[in-house]
Amino acid sequence: MNPLPGRKAPPQTAHAAMSRLLKIAIGSLVVGVTVLTIKLVAYWITGSIGLYSDALESLVNVGAAAAVIVAVWLARKPADANHPYGHTKAEYFSAVVEGALIIIAAASILRESYNGLLDPPVIDEPTVGILVNLGATVINAAWGAFLYRSGKSLSSPALVADSRHLFADVVTSVGVAVGVVIAIVADTPILDPIVAALVALNVLWSGWKLVKESVGGLMDEAAPPDQVERMREIIATYAEGAIEAHDLRTRHAGALTFVDFHLVVAGEMSVTEAHDICDRIERALQAEFENARITIHVEPENKAKHEGIVVL
Length: 312
Prior knowledge:
312 residues; Alpha-lytic protease prodomain-like; Alpha-Beta Plaits
């Protein structure tokens, strides 16, 4: 069986990905400041408690974007003596911080909504204010979609978390705009803070899901089942000359996926022959999972478990 052609070295690929991540994270900060400024203008025009709450959430977006920059900067540092597996898990801390910030934003919205229920605001220039606010919402939605695609392609939990944060902000903005419109049309100003409070509950739910997923990454969750199954297929196909493979384990660490398993070979096989089989499997795995870090434990045939991955 011919081995797959060589690919770009994983460390270079990971470094290029991290450089792109850092550029995108800086772009998020710029977009966050821009959207915050636009929403503050919308609040200044209208005096709406809902638009003020929306601006407060955007202020959290700016802090979250700054957290992502720090996390990505730390994650791109190479492995060292104290961190032999690298620093990629720093991204998960950013995702947890973002989840916490979302919860803080929702609490701030609920507080302002409560104040609005006690003293419903008089909304000025609603049409202009809503249009200005929706303009900021469109920017958030477009950037959020870009972040989500980039986060998935680069296997970055920090960017995916930031995209979900922005989508939560989009939901908040739309809900607030609807509340303002209904309050004006129905001539019932108290509807403005009521709708804002309902949206805050949705933001809280988003924050909870985000924190839960991030904690899963910190707890070394395995790769998705479809990826693990594909790894098993590749090992079975490219382990020709071996007897079996067993105890396949995977875990995610930011953009990296760590893979290790035991490869059973004939007792009389030379070290060179066993090493060649390992090299062939590694090339095949990295051809499909280029950010994989693979460790193979070679064992003699008396260690066979007669289970796991059967070599084709």
